[in-house]
Amino acid sequence: ETGVTQSPTHLIKTRGQQVTLRCSSQSGHNTVSWYQQALGQGPQFIFQYYREEENGRGNFPPRFSGLQFPNYSSELNVNALELDDSALYLCASSLASGGAGELFFGEGSRLTVL
Amino acid sequence: AQSVTQPDIHITVSEGASLELRCNYSYGATPYLFWYVQSPGQGLQLLLKYFSGDTLVQGIKGFEAEFKRSQSSFNLRKPSVHWSDAAEYFCAGGNTGGFKTIFGAGTRLFVKA
């Protein structure tokens, strides 16, 4: 059974640029959630995708967008990067949509915005 | 508003001593409750979860947690801590009517020899 994999593991961008982060969900999981974890804080919910559609969104601006593909892999896109976007971005897959199921996390993509 | 609170930012315990990490939740109905652990540079791993039934839940690595409705708490315990338990611990909550799992701010555990 393949776990959740994320790429890239680390990247550095400058303010105003755009970034795409990728996630392959665990085999058989049809739900993907993205979280932002700033240094010293807990993960903050960005959005969730279920069967290729956005299923819910946290308090993040529209410049944070996502996609889910037919194989349930997912992308997180962030436009017009700001310094405060520097964080660890975590992807989590699950069997159930919503907030009731166990989340299986990847190791994250660490984004630094200069 | 739904929330999960971890009152302790960090805790230091001696190896072999017992551990209790605190978690309080605020939900309209009984939520699903989780404890996750994050080692440095790693993603989060589930330790245990509570959905319903027995209020004392056993997890991996010798951890357990007790759900107390009257105190809106879900504290994590371990009778004897090992040096490898040093990590960040997150309490989280969710429900079937919502679409997200909410995480607390985390408690960093330090283990001294």
Provide tags for this entry.
heterodimer, A: 114 residues, mainly beta, seven-stranded mixed beta sheet, four-stranded antiparallel beta sheet, 50% strand, B: 113 residues, Immunoglobulin-like, six-stranded mixed beta sheet, 12 strands
Note down, in words, how this protein is organized.
- The complex is a heterodimer of chains A (114) and B (113).
- Chain A is an all-beta fold.
- Helix content of chain A is 0%, strand content 50%.
- In chain A, a hairpin with a 6-residue loop joins strand 4 and strand 5.
- Chain A starts with a strand and ends with a strand.
- Helix content of chain B is 0%, strand content 51%.
- Chain B is built from no helices and twelve strands.
- In chain B, the strands form three sheets. In chain B, strands 2, 5, 6, 10, 11 and 12 form a six-stranded mixed β-sheet that branches.
- The N and C termini of chain B lie far apart (41 Å).
- Classes of the chains: A mainly beta (114), B mainly beta (113).
- At the A-B interface, strand 5 and strand 10 of A face strand 5, strand 6, strand 10 and strand 11 of B.
Please name the two chains that share the biggest interface, counting residues whose Cβ lies under 8 Å from a Cβ on the partner chain: A-B, 27 and 28 residues
- CATH fold descriptor of chain B: Immunoglobulin-like
**What's the rounded overall pLDDT mean of chain A?**
92
Backbone structural class of chain A: mainly beta
Q: State the distance separating the first and last CA atoms of chain A.
A: 37 Å
The overall strand count of chain A is 11
Low-pLDDT ranges of chain A: none
Q: Would you count the extended β strands of chain B for me? A: 12
Rough outline of chain A: globular
Q: Please describe the biggest sheet of chain B, giving its number of strands, its sense, and whether it closes into a barrel.
A: 6 strands, mixed
- In CATH terms, the superfamily of chain B is Immunoglobulins
